[in-house]
Amino acid sequence: MFCCVTLCCIAEELMEMESIRFKLLLLFSLWICPLIHATEVSYCDENVEYNVKVKGVEISPNPIARGKAATFTISATTGESIYGGEMVIDVSYFGWHIHSETHELCAETSCPVSIGDFNVSYTQVLPGLTPPGSYWLKMKMFDGNKNEVTCIGFGFYIGFVSTVADIAQ
Ligand SMILES: *[C@@H]1O[C@H](CO)[C@@H](O)[C@H](O)[C@H]1NC(C)=O
């Protein structure tokens, strides 16, 4: 625990540095300090001005329990009204693509989405065999005309803890 806290502090001190070393350290601290770090969201392409800006992601429960439903709530702001569309979600584990799914945007938020703040909340169950550890989730959002309105990525963590029900399966 002490080691974990120390590494998180080092990572935060290096927050200003845009170095590969910092990114590695951050990945490492995400791996061991899931309870301390808030979910950091990044855009897939920092050079693109996405129409939908994402302010944050909340994951519940955090860490996610193996084989159990997890809810992701994304708070965002849109510069244009959205009348429909899709969210395409890809999950990877240490760079391995392990899971994809597509959600109707209007099933996860109320449509039409008018200009300004909105929240998208969706629940997913990852395959029961997923090992504990750090995962990366990439989410692309498309409007009704199939234009990409945003693309974000963030890390999340699946805990070691399993329930009795999991063991019995
Ligand atoms: C989005 O969710 C956050 C809390 O998770 C809440 O504070 C905010 O008011 C919500 N925004 C909208 C537009 O519903």
Automatic annotation (TrEMBL):
SMART domains named among the record's database cross-references: ML
Alphabetical keyword list: Lipid transport, Signal, Transport
Secretion signal span: 1-38
Residue ranges of every copy of the MD-2-related lipid-recognition domain listed in the record: 41-156
Any Pfam family matching the protein: E1_DerP2_DerF2
Coiled coil: none
Domain of life: Eukaryota
Subunit structure: Monomer.
Family as reported in the entry's similarity comment: Belongs to the NPC2 family.
PANTHER family: NIEMANN PICK TYPE C2 PROTEIN NPC2-RELATED, PHOSPHATIDYLGLYCEROL_PHOSPHATIDYLINOSITOL TRANSFER PROTEIN
Biological function: Catalyzes the intermembrane transfer of phosphatidylglycerol and phosphatidylinositol.
Protein name in the entry: MD-2-related lipid-recognition domain-containing protein
Organism: Stylosanthes scabra
